[in-house]
Inverse folding.
């Protein structure tokens, strides 16, 4: 399987992460996913009253220098790590 297929597979697996997954980890995944699928941030930073979207934008901006391939690899590694920490599904 190629990187794109692996990435898509782990994007599906990420949807099965438990609710207990920290917001910090969710934001890391969000930023890597956006960098891998869209590329560098292409929108203005949301206003200070929109905390959720602002945090998501900041997470995306934080990985701005990564190539699409780097972002995909980091995303896969992070999902694997979070799935291991979560343990087997109940």
């Amino acid at each position: 399987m190629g990187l794109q297929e692996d990435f898509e597979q782990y994007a599906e697996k990420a949807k099965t992460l438990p609710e207990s997954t920290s917001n910090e980890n969710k934001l890391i995944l969000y930023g890597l996913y956006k960098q891998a699928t869209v590329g560098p941030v292409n929108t203005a930073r949301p206003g200070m009253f929109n905390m959720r979207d602002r945090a998501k934008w900041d997470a995306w901006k934080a990985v701005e220098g990564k190539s699409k391939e780097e972002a995909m690899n980091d995303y896969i590694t992070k999902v694997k790590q979070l799935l291991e920490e979560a343990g087997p599904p109940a």
About this structure: The longest helix spans residues 68-86. The radius of gyration is 13 Å. The CA atoms of residues 45 and 57 lie 6 Å apart. Helices lie at 3-14, 23-37, 51-62, 68-86.
